[in-house]
Amino acid sequence: MDVITAIEGRQSIRDFDASRAVSDDLIKSMLGTAARAPSGSNIQPWHVYVVRDELQRKITDACVERFLSGDEGEAEYHYYPRSWRQPYIGRRRETGFGLYGLLGIDKSDKAAVQGYRIRNYQFFGAPVGFFFTIDRDMEPGSWLDYGMFLQSLMLTARARGLETCAQAAFCPYHDSITPLINAPEQEMLVCGMSMGYPVAGSLINTYRTSRLTADAFTHFPS
C-alpha cells in the first residue's frame, strides 16, 4: 500500500474480528517500522505494552467495572480543551452525532450510549491491544514525537492488512491499567490502541469523519 492510500484510507475501526489473531512476530515487525518515526535528538520517548488474552480481559473487566459504577476516573493530562469553543465544539458534535446517528442511538438514551461506550474498554473486539506510556519528565516536544510514532504504527498496520483505533478513553483509568501492565511509576499513560482485522460489512466500520480542505487552514503570509 502506498503512503497516500494508507493515509487517506485510515479511519478508526470499531468492530474487529476477534477470531483472527495477530502474531507476536508481526507486532514486533510493525513496531520496528514505526520506530523509524522522527524524534528530537533521536531520544525515542515511547514505551509500548502489548496486551492480549487473559491480561486484555483483566483490563476490560477493571475498566468496565469502574465505568458501570459511575466512576469516570481522571486522566493525568488534558487531552481536550478545558473550555470548549467554536469551531472545535462544532466539529466534536458533528462527529459524535454522526457516529451515534449511524448506529441509531439517541444520545438521550443513556443505556444505549453506555452500552456503546463499554465497547471502548472491550477493545472493540480486537485480539490485541496496546498501551503507550511516556516518562513523566518529558516535555511537549516529546509528545509531538509520540504522535508521529503512533501515526507511523497505524499506517504500518494498514500496509500489513490490519486496522486500528487509537483510544484516549482508557486514560481516565490509568491507575487501574498501569499496575496490570507493570508500567513503572515514572511512566504516564498516553493512550491505548486496538488493532486487528476489521469485521467485513460492519455498519460502524463505514463511519468516516469529515476533513477540512487545505484552503481552510493554510496561510501564505506575504
CATH architecture group name: 3-Layer(aba) Sandwich
CATH class membership: Alpha Beta
Radius of gyration: 18 Å
Q: Determine the mean pLDDT.
A: 97
Briefly note the CATH topology name: NADH Oxidase
Q: Biggest sheet: strands side by side, in what order?
A: 1-2-4-3
Distance between the termini: 38 Å
- In CATH terms, the superfamily is NADH Oxidase
**Poorly predicted residue ranges:** none
SSE topology string: HHEHHHEHEHEH
Class by SSE composition: alpha+beta
Number of DSSP strand runs: 4
Helix content: 40-55%
In terms of DSSP E residues, the strand content is 5-15%
Q: What is the 3D shape?
A: globular
Q: What count of domains describes the coordinates?
A: 1
Main sheet overview:
4 strands, antiparallel
Keywords: Flavoprotein, FMN, Oxidoreductase
Protein name: Nitroreductase
GO molecular function: oxidoreductase activity
Cofactor: FMN
Give an overview of the whole structure.
Helix 2 (24-34) packs across helix 6 (140-159). The chain contains 8 helices and 4 strands. It has helices at residues 3-9, 24-34, 53-68, 88-103, 110-121, 140-159, 174-180, 214-217, and strands at residues 47-51, 128-135, 163-167, 187-196. 42% of the residues lie in helices and 13% in strands. The protein has a 4-stranded antiparallel beta sheet. With 222 residues, the chain is α+β, with helices and mostly antiparallel strands. It has a single domain (3-79, 121-209), classed as NADH Oxidase, CATH 3.40.109.10. The mean pLDDT is 97. It is globular, with a radius of gyration of 18 Å. It starts with a helix and ends in a 5-residue tail after the last helix.
